[in-house]
Every structure is written in structure tokens, then in C-alpha cells.
Design a protein that fits this description.
Layout (H helix, E strand, L loop, with lengths): L1 H16 L5 H8 L4 E6 L13 E7 L3 H4 L3 H5 L5 E4 L13 E7 L8 H11 E13 L4 H14 L12 H7 L2 E11 L2 E13 L4 E7 L1 E2 L2 E7 L9 E3 L6 H13 L8 E11 L2 E13 L12 E7 L1 H4 L6 H13 L5
Parallel strand pairs: 1-2, 1-4, 2-3, 4-5, 8-13
Antiparallel strand pairs: 5-7, 6-7, 8-11, 9-10, 10-14, 12-13
Length: 337
């Protein structure tokens, strides 16, 4: 499959996605993009002719072989195009740095779709928009069943395209409000169903600071009294506090340790729906804690603490930010077992 994915699949996708049948839809999506734009799954650049309000385009595409087909189209662009050789699951752009994120027939193929959508939320400015057109699950029972049967086989030859993803549900559960949505079957393609729309991220109404404490390649997680989820130590910001100040205070209250500002290093900013209330969004500023003073002793509000490896997380009930964002990244960077 490596030879197929490297040499055959990029040529197939370039030819398939270059069909004039897609142009009307591409135009409708690209015309809504404005300002600094990130296109995830840039492919071979077929959206470029339809952008007309773009100041700069970040072209995110993990396949260098597929991106190579875009060179002539990029030369014709009236705006700068910067290649981002990365996956949408870990976008190497600053938080709140883009005005529009564009996705055309990409979400069906991303391995960890939930994580990539959280990354889209992270890089979008508060007033930014996510405009998309995607393949997804058909509402017709027999068609949906056929999609589910076919996908485990067909994804190996179509760049991991999943025909059966409920795209609108994924987008909403990531923390978006869908402003516009057109869901319809694709003419002449009975197993293809399209979702086209515009979404804006819900404004976070809970702001937290959380800490990453590692000892002997294991991560510290805590569970508060009357709670079922383990999370990283930390808590809500109080009025007038910076995230660092809040975390230092919480670490002293929860674990009875002393931490200095210079011992904190930014790990990332992550958002997720609040546990038990999907209509509320939590944004957490997460910091690694390089060192601390004192013995870790649970405070009055902490029921249990554990030092865990990544495998332990699979059998625990963890808060989504630590389960879906923090622990996978720590493992990828070989910071925990």
C-alpha cells in the first residue's frame, strides 16, 4: 500500500477531484473565505481560482506528492500561498490566527476527525468561520447500511475516505454552531451524500488553567470529590487572574505544592464541550510544570490522584481535553510511556 499511496493515489485524486462537476460547489465555498485563510486538505489546489477575498492562504496538505500537482495553480494565485506540510490533527499555526478555515471533501478522510476539528476551533479567530463541503452518511437507511459495509474496504483505495461519517454531528460536538447547512444526495452517485455549510465556534464561557506534571514518565491526573472524571490539576480563572496565576493558586490548593511562574511552560490551548452540558464550551490554557516544591498531598477537594501512562488512560474516565489532546501529544513527543 505504501507504493500505491505515494505514487498512484495522488495521481488518482488529482484527476478525480479536478472534474468540472465540482467547480460550482468549489466556487460557492471558496467565495465565502476571507482574510487569512487555512485550507485543510489542500490537495492539488483546485480551489485556488475561486478565492477572491483572500489576503493569505495557508495550504495544509500532508501529502507532498499530491501538493506537487498544485505548483502551476499556485503560480496563478493573486495572493501568497504558504505550504503547511502537516496533518489537520496537529496544525502548526498559532491559536486564533486565521479568519476562515476551508475544507472541501477532506473531513471524510482524516484519521482522527474529532481532534482535527478541535484544532480548527483553536486556530480560528473568535469571529472566524469554518466553511465546508463533505461526503457523509446518508439519511436513507439502506444507503447508510451500504455505506457502512463498503467503507472498511473502499477506504484503503480512496485515501481513507469514510462514506459513513455523520459530518454535521461531528462538527457540532466539536464546539461549533452550524449557521447554514445544505444536506443532499449527489446526483448520479447513490452512495454519496453531501453536507455543505458554514459554522462558527461557540464562544467559550468557562476558562481554565491546567497543569501537566510528569514524574518517571507518568502523568499526574486528579479526581475531585463527587466527580467521575480524572483531569489535570488546575481550575477556573478568577476575576483579574492570568492563567499562570490561576494554575499556581490551584496547584497549591489541590496538591499543596509551590510553583513559580518561571517553572511553567505553555503546552497549548484546547477547547471542548463541558462534561454534562454540551452547550457550554471550556477553554483550557495548559502548561507543563518543570519543577515544584513540596510533597504532593491531595487537598480537601481532591478525592484521588494517579500517576498514569498512556495505556492506563484507555481504561479510565478522563476529561476530554486530557484524553483527546494532552495525552496523545505527550505520547507523540515521547514524554510519557
Amino acid at each position: 500500500m505504501k507504493i500505491y499511496n505515494k505514487y498512484i493515489l495522488p495521481r488518482f485524486l488529482d484527476r478525480e477531484m479536478g472534474s468540472a462537476d465540482f467547480n460550482q460547489t468549489r466556487k460557492a465555498i471558496a467565495e465565502q473565505a476571507k482574510g487569512t485563510v487555512l485550507e485543510i486538505g489542500f490537495g492539488s489546489g483546485y480551489n485556488i481560482p475561486f478565492y477572491n477575498n483572500v489576503r493569505k492562504l495557508f495550504a495544509l496538505e500532508p501529502s507532498g506528492e499530491l501538493y506537487a500537482y498544485a505548483k502551476n495553480r499556485i503560480k496563478s494565485a493573486s495572493f501568497p500561498v504558504e505550504y503547511v506540510s502537516a496533518s489537520a490533527e496537529e496544525i502548526p499555526l498559532p491559536t486564533a490566527s486565521v479568519d476562515t478555515v476551508v475544507s472541501t471533501w477532506t473531513l471524510c478522510s482524516i484519521p482522527d476527525l474529532k481532534r482535527s476539528l478541535r484544532e480548527v476551533i483553536r486556530v480560528l479567530k473568535p469571529e472566524g468561520e469554518f466553511v465546508f463541503v463533505e461526503h457523509g452518511r446518508s439519511p436513507k437507511r439502506l444507503n447508510s447500511l451500504a455505506q457502512s459495509i463498503l467503507t472498511p474496504i473502499s477506504k484503503h483505495f480512496t485515501g481513507n475516505c469514510h462514506l459513513d461519517r455523520q459530518i454535521d454531528t461531528y462538527i457540532r460536538e466539536a464546539g461549533f454552531d452550524i449557521q447554514e447547512l445544505i444536506a443532499m444526495p449527489e446526483a448520479g452517485r447513490p452512495l454519496m451524500f453531501s453536507y455543505r455549510g458554514v459554522a462558527r465556534k461557540r464562544v467559550a464561557d468557562i476558562h481554565k488553567a491546567m497543569g501537566v506534571l510528569i514524574r518517571d514518565r507518568k502523568l499526574l491526573v486528579t479526581r475531585s470529590k463527587d466527580k467521575i472524571h480524572f483531569i489535570g490539576p488546575g481550575g477556573k480563572l478568577e476575576a483579574g487572574e492570568t492563567a499562570q496565576e490561576a494554575l499556581i493558586r490551584e496547584l497549591h490548593e489541590e496538591l499543596q505544592i509551590t510553583v513559580k511562574t518561571e517553572d511553567l511552560e505553555v503546552f497549548g490551548s484546547f477547547s471542548a464541550a463541558a462534561a454534562g452540558n454540551k452547550s457550554r464550551i471550556v477553554t483550557a490554557q495548559v502548561f507543563t510544570v518543570a519543577r515544584w516544591e513540596g510533597e504532593i498531598i491531595p487537598g480537601n477537594e481532591i478525592e484521588e490522584i494517579r500517576w498514569i501512562a498512556s495505556e492506563d488512560a484507555k481504561s479510565m474516565t478522563l476529561g476530554s481535553i486530557f484524553a483527546d489532546d494532552v495525552i496523545p501529544r505527550l505520547k507523540e513527543h515521547d514524554l510519557i510511556d
